[in-house]
Amino acid sequence: MNKKGQVSIGFLIVAAIAVIIGLVLLSPIASNVDQTTRTVSGTTAVENQTITAPASGSIVESSGQELVGIPKVYNESGASLVITSPNYTISECVKTSDSLKGICYKALTAEYEGKNINVSYTYYPAGYADDAGSRSIAGIIVLLAAIGIAVVCIPKVKELLD
Question: Using the 8-state DSSP alphabet, how is residue 135 labeled?
Answer without folding.
Answer: H
